[in-house]
Amino acid sequence: MSVIDLNSDVGESFGNWSFGDDAAILASVSSANVACGFHAGDPVGIRATVRAAVRTGTTVGAHPGYRDLAGFGRRFIDMDPGELRDDVIYQIGALQALARAEGTTVRYVKPHGALYNTIVHHEVQAQAVVDAVRAVDSALPMLVLPGSVVERRAAEAGLRTVAEAFADRAYRPDGTLVPRSQQGAVLHDMDQILEHVFRLVDGAVRAVDGTVLPVNAGSICVHGDSPGAVAMAENIHRELTAQGVTVQSFA
Q: A single Gene Ontology molecular function, please (predicted)?
């Protein structure tokens, strides 16, 4: 693969609580998954993140999640599908307005946290998210875990999907992510992360049991709130470029 997208979750600071260095990490990634206010983010901070993305030429995407500020959107919520659909529509719309105020647009959607993981296997919630994206703009691509229910549902609805992999997360043998509650779920060693990323670029991932799984990823996520996230993104971008891989947004 000679071209790959690097994405990062940003815009997640809220009031006096600061998460990540958005301005710094945006210099190394090509797509910004911007929080929409339900799991994290406030209007001032979200708009500032969009403004920073405009300065760095980074593509802006919506990062909607469950209405769960206290849990940072990392707790499953058993929602009525119509309510979930409208919550996602609301969040995309809020980011669209702030992006327009900064002279740019929302170009894709990536669900956040527990919602992202739930729609890997939950048929009803996956359909609700797909319905929301289609209602807002059927031309918006969705970043999804490959082989997930939402990937299938989106394709059935005529939406474009882009398979995503994770630079700093461990994988289970079934291709899903190791839950954050388990030891070793998040990778921290830079050499291990780079080996992991280059394997992803080559179309594979090594699971925690040593199994090598095929992965056709169009985008690789570097979590913006991880310790050392800025240095991680800089290293990944630099090493990919050195090996002739172009970092470029899929959208």
A: 5-oxoprolinase (ATP-hydrolyzing) activity
Reduced to 3 states, what is the DSSP secondary structure of residue 15?
Answer: coil
Quote the DSSP letter at residue 179.
P
Contact yes or no for 250/141 (Cβ under 8 A): yes
Taking the CA atoms of residue 236, residue 247, residue 152 and residue 178 in that order, the dihedral angle to the nearest 10 degrees is: 0
E strands along the chain, which residues?
Answer: 3-10, 31-35, 59-63, 142-144, 161-166, 204-206, 212-214, 219-221, 246-247
- Domain 3-247 class in CATH: alpha beta
Q: What is the pTM of this model?
A: 0.94
CB 241 within 8 A of CB 26: no
Q: What are the sequence ranges of the domains in the chain?
A: 3-247
Residue pLDDT, tens place only, 102-122: 999 999 999 999 999 999 999
Q: Of 236, 238, 203, 235, whose CA–CA distance to 217 is shortest?
A: 203
User: pLDDT band at residue 1, thresholds of 50, 70 and 90?
Assistant: low
